[in-house]
Amino acid sequence: MKRVLILMFSLTLLLSACGKKDIENKNLEQIQAEQGIPVRINAIEKNTFVQELIYNAGLSGIQESTTKAMVSDIVVGINAKVGDRVSKGQLIVTFPENTPSAQYDQATTAFNSSKQLFERMQRLFAQGAISQQDMDNVEAGYKVSKANLDASRKMINITAPIDGVITNMKVNVADHVYPGQDLFTVANTSRYRAVLWVPESEISQIKKGTAVTAVWNEAQIKGRVTTIAMALDPDNKAFRVEAELNNTDKSFAPGITADIRLSILSKPNSIVVDRQNIVTENGESYVWIAKDDKAVKTPITVGLDNQLQFEVLSGLSVGDSLITEGINMLSENVKIRIID
Length: 340
What we know:
20 strands; alpha+beta; six-stranded antiparallel barrel; 25% helix; 3 domains; Helix Hairpins; elongated; three-stranded mixed β-sheet; single chain; conserved putative lor/sdh protein from methanococcus maripaludis s2 fold; Elongation Factor Tu (Ef-tu), domain 3
């Protein structure tokens, strides 16, 4: 009896397993035939086909200046930080007044002495007690001493050379610096500049005024080519091209490296298809069109390309439903199901 129960239980499991397998096989083999292969589509419409040259370049402010140390001494004060907006002439970095190479104390003493002499001589000259030549000599000495003091002051009190934003501070308080060492950078970021190195094979396609788009992390700013070198740079073996871009997106910052796209051709009212949606077989190009719930393999004639897209000259019309996802699963006239 026990053996009979075990046999019946085993048979039930086997039958259940076979039934489950049949269902699974049906799902795998028939679901697409019954419901259609899931695809996504885009309606064909007229667009502007753009052909571009793409380079990588760092962005800098339209004006940018890095100030260097003129003395060898300790930094005693820093009056701005990275990101601060500063004005031309604003005090940024200071050094001790007794810095030997600046000779600030000596210059101050000489200036005060010459100033007193100049003021005294002015009074005597007004009274007619000294000649014009004597007055001119004293005035010349006063101006020289003033210029020396200004020069000495500039060596220990470092100011912003232009209006802009501090984009880099390269020293800290108590750092010992040397003449020629970079202290800080100020950039005018109302606009940006990009310097491109264009090979000889492409320079003829670029003109002054060519539209430019800088792309960085999906953000974009636009501008124009402003300068094109007339001679090949011997070191870079390329032509130097400058572009200026409007700062319309605050996510951009000086120093970043962006894709710089130069629009060398623009054709409006074109049918444009992404490269990934085109199938090439035996040198012929095809796309898949959704028609009456079927996938139709459609030959096309392509024209220009920009590496990412093709201009389609024939084979597609406005309003056609171009299949953009699920292409690899398609065959001629197979049933499809359009999904959102």
